[in-house]
Amino acid sequence: MKHLVYTALLFGSSMAVLAEEGSAAEESPWKGKAELGVVNSNGNTNTSSSNGKLNLVYDAEVWKQEFRLETYKAESEVEENGVDVLKKTADRTYFFSKTDYKFSSKSYAYALLDYADENFTAYDYIGNFSIGFGRSFIKDKETEFGGEIGYGLRRYQEKFQFIAEEEEVARLAGNYRQKISSNANFQQELVAEFGKDFDVYKSVTALTVNINSSMALSVGYEVQHTTEVEEGFEKTDSKTTVNLVYNFL
After folding, report:
1. Binning pLDDT at 50, 70 and 90, where does residue 177 land?
2. SS3 for 163?
3. What is the SS3 assignment for 43?
4. Residues 214, 216, 219: CA angle, nearest 5 degrees
5. Dihedral, CA atoms, 22, 145, 246, 91, nearest 10 degrees?
6. pLDDT of residue 26
7. Looking at domain 3-247, what is its CATH homologous superfamily?
8. Stronger pLDDT, 82 or 128, i.e. the higher one
9. What are 193's strand-pairing partners?
10. Which candidate, 217, 214, 198, 215, places its Cα nearest to that of 206?
């Protein structure tokens, strides 16, 4: 199950070696941020959840490389045989690596690899590799709007099964960013992955407000819909997050 993650790390490292160092500029090509959010509820119902995100981007004249690592865990107190027991209700790890080769300031080719390790969904894990083309239709200091189209391979393993499956997938993605004010930004990402066995639709919405030059507060809403799941599992998962963001690069 972990070989896709190792492949992603090798893939990203090799592309970083190939990445060109752009002409001397005042601004560093590296950008990085870390997010953390924790929620605890006590009283009639005891629940707790935590999520963390790490994002690293290298953006030079020709090459752009992005790495992303996300975790989400949740626990809830339930009654079993008259005894309150704390049970884990969510446990997800997600890795994302993407390399862009820029043809111009608005057009690029990309190679993408992502891997989601799940414990409480219909699939133990889902990994995707795709290549494709991207285009920025609007790109300035205030607004950015772009789309991507690609084709690749999905590898997954269903819950309670021991054999992994593979299928070809088509990928469509859209991204919109808007600077609302001098210290607030809105972002919307949409991804659709079409396969013969099932389709996956993802939506990530976030509003970020800067506290100072390195700290920010982010409120997000994420939805993932899978068209085919085993009986007893929900097709749609969603979560709302409130995270403290630290920009370290």
Report:
1. very high
2. coil
3. coil
4. 155
5. -120
6. 64
7. monomeric porin ompg (2.40.160.40)
8. 128
9. 171, 200
10. 217
Cα separation of 142 and 249, whole Å? 21
pLDDT digits (tens, 9 = 90+) for 6-45: 444 444 444 444 444 444 446 789 999 999 999 887 776 7
Q: How far apart are CA 74 and CA 17, in angstroms?
A: 38
State the pLDDT at residue 12.
47
Domain residue spans in the chain?
Answer: 3-247
Spatial separation of the C-alpha atoms in residues 220 and 238, rounded to whole Å: 11
How far, in Å, are 129, 147, 200 from residue 207 at the CA level?
A: 29, 20, 24
CB 131 within 8 A of CB 145: no
3-state secondary structure of 121: coil
SS3 content of the chain, % helix, strand, coil (to 5): 5, 70, 25
- What pLDDT is attached to residue 172? 98
Residue holding tokens 């999520």?
Answer: 51
Average pLDDT, the chain: 88
State how far Cα 7 lies from the chain centre. Answer: 17
Phi and psi at 144, nearest 5°, equal -140, 130
Helix (H) or strand (E) holding 6: helix 3-18
